[in-house]
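Design job #97: recover the sequence.
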């Protein structure tokens, strides 16, 4: 083992300063290992930045907070045939999707939503209530007018909405109807999750 080692040491010391300089110049044309490492790290940093930007956007959507709850401020409340129910006492309206002046909830973002309506109708009048998405019937509920028992009825629906779609409550089309106020009639909803 001593023989080859001695040859290597001899060869190393046998290079002249000129040869060493030429060798160094030749190597300088290729990226140094350090430069390769730096380039790789720069690529990794750029990829990480892009991923962080994407994750921040996802997080912002996941944190989108939309929820509303509205009631009537007086009792009872009367609406004509097919009129929109205007629940004027707004208890919760995070994201400002609900408009008490029109009774409309306009979806601020596209996603999956849950809506719930509870109502108590007039004791002596059959009363329907329709939950509408734009101009399409999505769900309905009914309080009978047997005159003996107050009915407190409800409907719940889960639906995907595109941003700007309208959800509202429509009164019975068969004449003027009364709905009980206070906490007896409520309209509420929230965003379950926004679209990616
Ligand atoms: Ca009844």
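Job complete. Output follows.
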């Amino acid at each position: 083992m001593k023989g080859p080692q001695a040859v290597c040491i001899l060869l190393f010391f046998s290079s002249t300063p000129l040869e060493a300089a030429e060798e160094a110049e030749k190597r300088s044309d290729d990226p140094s290992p350090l430069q390769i490492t730096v380039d790789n790290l720069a690529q990794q940093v750029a990829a990480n930045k892009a991923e962080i930007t994407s994750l921040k956007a996802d997080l912002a959507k996941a944190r989108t907070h939309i929820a509303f709850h509205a009631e009537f401020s007086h009792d009872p409340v009367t609406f004509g045939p097919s009129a929109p129910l205007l629940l004027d006492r707004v208890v919760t309206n995070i994201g400002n999707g609900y408009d008490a002046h029109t009774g409309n909830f306009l979806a601020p973002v596209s996603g999956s939503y849950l809506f719930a309506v509870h109502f108590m109708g007039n004791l002596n009048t059959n009363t329907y209530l329709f939950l509408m998405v734009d101009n399409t019937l999505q769900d309905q509920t009914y309080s009978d007018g047997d005159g003996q028992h107050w009915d407190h009825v409800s409907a719940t629906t889960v639906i995907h909405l595109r941003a700007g779609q309208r959800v509202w409550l429509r009164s019975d089309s068969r004449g003027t109807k009364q709905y009980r106020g206070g906490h007896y009639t409520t309209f509420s909803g929230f965003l379950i999750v926004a679209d990616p």
